[in-house]
Amino acid sequence: MVVKGFYAIFILMLFLINLAYAQAPYLSLSADKNVYSVGDRILVYAEIHNVNDYKVDAMLQTLLTNENKTYPAGIIPYEFSLDKNEKMEILIYNISIDENFISDKYIADVIVLFDRVKVARGALAFEVAGTLKGMSADIKFCKDNLCENKSKIFLKNENVYIDYDSDVLNPSVTAVLIFPDKTTKQIILPTSIKADQIGTYNLEVSASKEGYRTIEKKEQFGAIEEDTNIEYSEPKAANNASLTNGVLYILIGIIIILIVFFIYKKKFSNKIRKI
Hints:
Blueprint: H1 2-22, E1 27-31, E2 35-36, E3 41-49, E4 56-66, E5 76-82, E6 87-96, E7 104-114, E8 117-128, E9 137-142, E10 153-155, E11 158-166, E12 172-178, E13 184-188, E14 191-195, E15 199-208, E16 215-224, H2 234-274
Parallel strand pairs: 2-8, 10-16
Antiparallel strand pairs: 1-3, 3-6, 4-5, 4-7, 7-8, 9-11, 11-14, 12-13, 12-15, 15-16
């Protein structure tokens, strides 16, 4: 009973949203259903009315999104002309529903422009139910089994811990691991392997769960040689010493020149006095 109550509230919300957003002087949005299931076809219409007493160049910009933001978003433009007081109905969405279409709440957002000026905006909400739900499975490579230190670069013979994050509980996550020498290994995540080969490792992942859409993705990580300690060589220190000695020699030279100058000056002054 509680579920049916929530469902009834959602249907009422759909009706109110459609009523509030879809009705405008220039724009009216409509669909043949509020809830769609497998085998249905989503049909969304936009009726545009030029209330002006002159002809206009019109454009519609439509965007379909879902609550979980998994539907591939993209603005679809429609361009046409309308004479004064003319109405035109356009089928803006015609989508077939199969079991792979994600169950979710959707909104069709429509903007109307007359002569490149926005004159109206409307939205129409509907739901897709009874199909496979969407889920996420984000693969992560770590240096420890708690995955506190994530990385995609490892040292040769280092343990690589492969895990995942998902928004559903306990999905089945399997993968094919392709080693740098092109040999393969079937693994089940989470797991760990030893990176005993240098190069790039490829991971082909499949995540599934009953009632959810299967996810397939590819990931990579790499293994490199162990770091080598780089020691500073003595010649660099010798160069520093040479630089210091050079400065010292210059200072000594300047001091000697000054001493000779003052001695010469003193002797020259004494000769002038005798004359």
